[in-house]
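Hi, here's the filled form for the chain we discussed.

Project: internal
Contact: R.S.
Residues: 191
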Amino acid sequence: MADVFEVLGKDHAEVRAMLTELEAGTRKGPPADPAELRRRGELVQRLVIDESKHEAVEEEYFWPAVRELLGDGDELADHGVGQEQDAKHVLAVLDKSKPGEADFEEAVARFIADAREHISYEEGTVWPRMRQVLDPERAQRMGDRIAAAKKHAPTRPHPNTPPNPALLKTAGPAVAATDRIRDLVSGRGRH
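And the returned structure, exactly as it came back:
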């Protein structure tokens, strides 16, 4: 099993790879080829699903630990959660728009910049401090919980849901179940 930093780090690496692929497509200009538009849409759909899960479990498990263990944890967590809330709004735009449309491409560009900044903040500012205070056993348990929670986390952004860990743990499963039913009916995320 992996500890919290390995679990979240794997997510970050996967997101970075998707961002790089999206950037490469952006540099070529607006895609006109239907196959390229479909591929770009599928990549963004995967990004929305993966990021929705990632942010939900961080808000349930990681940020509460930051608040608990670090003297300035509330400030650090407020900043990180604020970035995630902003990201959910952009992800919601991406989830509803189509590749090649102006709002889609603008949202992709914004998400790329914001996601890189957020990952840098977590890995460069928060993680080093958490590594100093989080004992290996607790880091392992947190990694296990996060990995397990991702299997049942929401697959869509919910920017209007307060990032309250207790609320997310109680209402999250119902929201996630609704997301998964919608995904099943619509075929979203099958590729």
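Let me know if anything looks off before we file it.
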